[in-house]
Specification:
Elements (H helix, E strand, L loop, with lengths): L5 H11 L5 H23 L8 E5 L5 E3 H15 L4 E6 L6 E2 L9 E9 L10 E9 L9 H8 L8 E7 L3 E6 L5 E6 L4 E6 L10 E3 L10 H11 L11 E2 L5 H11 L2 E4 L12 E2 H14 L3 E3 L16 E2 L1 E4 L1 H14 L1
Parallel strand pairs: 3-5, 11-12, 11-13
Antiparallel strand pairs: 1-2, 3-4, 5-6, 6-7, 7-8, 8-9, 9-10, 13-17, 14-16, 15-17
Bound molecules: 2,5-anhydro-1,6-di-O-phosphono-D-glucitol (AHG) and manganese (II) ion (2 copies).
Length: 339
């Protein structure tokens, strides 16, 4: 039997579980279409005008790459006319983008990290797009972009869908509409995503960890303890040898964990303490935590379940520890013990 397309998967989810309303179904297909376009743009590499610096900074003071800006534009343009969204928010924009008045407004909000892993763009290492869908509150004030910020400040538990596209040797779309996680592979000849794995489950245990070791001297005691125990290997208290991987594209590191297990940490450290952490809650930590939990894993800050955080700001940063449940629980326990 031919593999189901993303469209068919969504229609069947709508029919049998009723958990994908028709308008959410269309919204997700438009996001997937935008990811396909981003994938094509990335694929041009040095043959197109897509590599290098954009010459501007984003709201977080980070230098934007041309592909950060282009991916943001592709997502905005693809999504603003469909009639399913009220507003969008992105890593690359200080304020939400309201759906222009010439288009009908819908009942959802979309947040995204248009291009994750920017430091890997110019060296041809896997990068991605992360997105999250929320319902727009009925009484939301969408009169100005400033006012619209408030509508987005919902905890991760309120997400109705989340996903990421991974632009690697193959382009993948990994999606959850709240009933497990499904993976789709881009069929480049036909320009469509085909279902390649359903009911993704992250192994409960792992021997693989992902952390930027160059930050070691800045970590807090619980992470110092945990990493030193892993490095001690078989002879240490954890009784097994661990391996380490760090791609520095969150999408790629999380995808490895979705596929074969592992633990990913961008914990609180002295370098990022004043800004609350490194990774952004609304368009990095929350969608990834949603996917990881839907696949049987866990995601915390070390002190709190990520999906329970009540956001204070659109661009809020948080510490992130996610992946195989037993390991996330262990290091979260070390934080509790330290408290
Ligand atoms: P972005 O490219 O969207 O700004 O995100 C980069 C993030 C994340 O993808 C990755 O895990 C982390 O930054 C890498 O940080 P280091 O460069 O400190 O390793
Ligand atoms: Mn990112
Ligand atoms: Mn980004």
């Amino acid at each position: 039997m031919a593999r189901p397309t993303l469209s068919r998967y969504l229609v069947e989810e709508h029919r049998c579980a009723g958990c994908v309303p028709a308008d959410l179904n269309f919204l997700i297909k438009i996001v997937a279409r935008a990811c396909l376009h981003i994938s094509v743009a990335i694929g041009k590499g040095g043959l197109g005008d897509v590599l290098g610096e954009a010459g501007s900074d984003n709201v977080q003071g980070e230098a934007q790459k041309k592909l950060d800006v282009l991916s943001n534009e592709i997502l905005l343009e693809a999504n603003e006319w469909g009639g399913y969204l009220a507003a969008m928010a992105s890593e690359e924009m200080e304020l939400p983008h309201l759906v222009p008045n010439r288009f009908p407004k819908g009942k959802y909000l979309l947040t995204f990290d248009p291009l994750d892993g920017s430091s890997n763009i110019d060296v041809n290492v896997s990068i991605g797009t992360i997105f999250s869908v929320l319902k727009c509150p009925d009484n939301a004030d969408l009169s100005t972009p400033e006012a619209a910020r408030q509508a987005f400040l919902q905890p991760g538990t309120a997400q109705v869908a989340a996903g990421y596209a991974l632009y690697g040797p193959t382009t993948l779309l990994v999606l959850s509409v709240g009933r497990g996680v499904a993976m789709f592979t881009l069929d480049r000849e036909h320009g469509q995503f085909l279902l390649t794995q359903e009911n993704v489950q992250i192994p409960v245990q792992t021997k693989e960890f992902a952390i930027n070791m160059s930050n070691q001297r800045f970590w807090e005691a619980p992470v110092q303890r945990y990493v030193s125990e892993m490095l001690a290997g078989k002879e240490g208290p954890l009784g097994k040898d661990y391996n380490m991987r760090w791609v520095a594209s969150m999408v790629s590191d999380v995808h490895r964990i979705m596929t074969r297990g592992g633990i990913f940490m961008y914990p609180m450290d002295e370098k990022v303490r004043t800004q609350g952490g490194k990774l952004r809650l609304m368009y990095e930590a929350n969608p990834m935590a949603f996917l990881v939990e839907q696949a049987g894993g866990a995601a915390t800050t070390g002190r709190q379940r990520i999906l329970d955080i009540a956001p204070q700001d659109l661009h809020q940063r948080v510490p992130v520890i996610l992946g195989s449940r037993e390991e996330v629980e262990r290091v979260t326990g070390y934080h509790q013990g330290a408290a």
